[in-house]
Fold this sequence. Notes:
The structure is a homotetramer. By secondary structure, chain A is mainly alpha-helical. Helix content of chain A is 70%, strand content 0%. In chain A, helix 5 packs antiparallel against helix 10. The longest helix of chain A has 27 residues, at 6-32. The interface between A and B is large, with 48 and 50 residues. Chain A binds a DNA duplex through residues 6, 10, 13-14, 17, 38-40, 48-52, 54-55, 59-60.
Amino acid sequence: METTQAKPIREKYVQEMRALILGTAQKIYKEEGAQALTIRKIAKQMEYSPGIIYHYFKNKEEILAILREEGFHKILHSTEPPSSLPPDRAMESFLLKFCDNALKNPDAFREVMFDNAPSVLEYTSFLGEPTKYRAVNRIANLLNAGVEQGQFAPCDPALTARALMCSLFGLVSRLVTEKGVAADRRFNLLVTQVKLLMRGLRA
Amino acid sequence: METTQAKPIREKYVQEMRALILGTAQKIYKEEGAQALTIRKIAKQMEYSPGIIYHYFKNKEEILAILREEGFHKILHSTEPPSSLPPDRAMESFLLKFCDNALKNPDAFREVMFDNAPSVLEYTSFLGEPTKYRAVNRIANLLNAGVEQGQFAPCDPALTARALMCSLFGLVSRLVTEKGVAADRRFNLLVTQVKLLMRGLRA
Amino acid sequence: METTQAKPIREKYVQEMRALILGTAQKIYKEEGAQALTIRKIAKQMEYSPGIIYHYFKNKEEILAILREEGFHKILHSTEPPSSLPPDRAMESFLLKFCDNALKNPDAFREVMFDNAPSVLEYTSFLGEPTKYRAVNRIANLLNAGVEQGQFAPCDPALTARALMCSLFGLVSRLVTEKGVAADRRFNLLVTQVKLLMRGLRA
Amino acid sequence: METTQAKPIREKYVQEMRALILGTAQKIYKEEGAQALTIRKIAKQMEYSPGIIYHYFKNKEEILAILREEGFHKILHSTEPPSSLPPDRAMESFLLKFCDNALKNPDAFREVMFDNAPSVLEYTSFLGEPTKYRAVNRIANLLNAGVEQGQFAPCDPALTARALMCSLFGLVSRLVTEKGVAADRRFNLLVTQVKLLMRGLRA
DNA sequence: TATGAATGAGCCTTCATTCAT
DNA sequence: CATGAATGAAGGCTCATTCAT
């Protein structure tokens, strides 16, 4: 009988509505900032009544929590396969790709990396040692290798890796925060930044 | 007649009241965050009535705008007196002092620089040209001079100034976000960052 | 044809659903109070959907009205079979049983007897004459008989019956209102009250 | 100067507004019950906007608390001066006066004594021991004295005092709940009740 | 018959802003 | 100049009720 399919259809609809609400919320967050994100605004933009949102989410906090959680996965768990290039080339490539990657989820980046809640910082902080932030450890490894092979000037790899990361973080942060930086400008900034850093590293 | 003197006196009084209101607002902002800043709270803390604030300011937005403007002075427009040092030394000194300065107002830094509201970005964005962010322009000038004098390798000063700024911004951002980075660690990170950048610039 | 039987079957089903809904409503009311009684909660506890309730009842008010009406019967129309005991024994027994009975439905008692809506008072008021409150009339009859037989001191039976009833009502009211009066304390209070009243009646 | 009087005038106005709000709240409570008492309804009935109520009261709970507190004083703290009459006369007088007193604030009596919220019961419950309800303790004292002097039959004073109180409470409860009991009828009921109880006490 | 998505009204509360005094 | 009473809009949230399916 067809009726046995009613439930999955419902379920799918519910998931779509949740996604719609989350998407709308994210859009508002992105365009107008955290403090402009209200249940009523979400509803209005969806052309629904505010009450309906509470069918799909327990409360506003649940929406915010999910938004944050989603950001987490996008930002912190993106992994580049290890490269077989020489350390300097690998480094340059890694720096570029890291930025590329981060810029694919600009809102998630902001949500996650600008959050100073302890529970979030546990995963995002990288100035101290050790850090759970994979990219920093990756950079440190490349630095070690590059110094060993004489491509990079001698340095403290742990500190220098963090300096490099801060530089990238700074650039990405501005790019995801400032609106309307044209694509070619973005590209130029990125290349300029990476070149500057690579020059700074070289032996 | 006395009346000829009344005006300047009144004018002075008005300026004092504006300063008092702004100071109180800033204090609340600093101690309790942006969302805790209400007209009522300002008035209460001044031991005045809420209405009076509208004698001296058109509305809350005007106060916020000025606060931001002031925050920018602290964050964005802290001007170091032009240095008589050669450009490379001046640059190094400027980069260090810029960070030192920014770290004096960590909350203001976060509030101002992480805000992506258009009204804020008007003052804080610096990836595009021109920018109201003085430090960037200053760096660009130092770059120009340094390149001319052959201390720095040839580069696009506008782009490179922004890359430098992003690097500093990234470091300061993490320092004001991550908790518990020890003072000596902070110092090491700062020195490492600036050295790396200076190496990247040199001819 | 089958259809001739369909109607009674359906009718019976409807009655069962109504009973189920009312029972669930009463349970919630009893356990969580009047303000916790919501259509959603009834439906959830029945594991049905909220909408279905409107198939069986016009609206929430109809459910509440029936709940009240049921409380009415429990409180006001509980009839003890006439006793063959002498009036004084019969009176003592009746007073005790009346309280016992009332205490079996504490919430209903509160709901009905504390209500001062005219529509409710029509059934519950007993200070005036005549009254629809059976127990009062019963007590008056017992009083009459007891006075005639010389067991009770002469008195105005109508007034005295009301005084007796008020005393019982007062005790029961406190017992259904105050929480945590232990069973043995309840018993002692009840016995003390009835003895006091019986002493007051005796010739 | 006249201006020195501005403050007291303001203060008086504030007190009047608070009284107006409380009065309106009480009226709604009395006429429509506790659950119909909303801030909006108070405001609407006063022909004010809801927000203004928060100028005069912290929140709804404060209003409710004051309403309760006022009821408390009226109902629970009315003290009769200790009498120099012999215990039996003093008892009779006390019982009568207690009812008289309670009937002076019929609404308060209902509000306070029919409330089964823990915070209210803390003050109103008297079936257990000890109780904060002064009248009950007063009655117990009179009972003790009367038994000692041989005017009252031996009894458990604590329990008997509660039985007496319940009887009075029952009568008053009905009088404040049932509408339109004529004054002479009230008087007759009261006298009948007290006589019955006094007969029940006597040695 | 039964579902559950959706609405609209209402709840408590906060706040920028206005205005008579 | 200064007050503070008052408003109206908005915020998060709940709920009785309706209706297409």
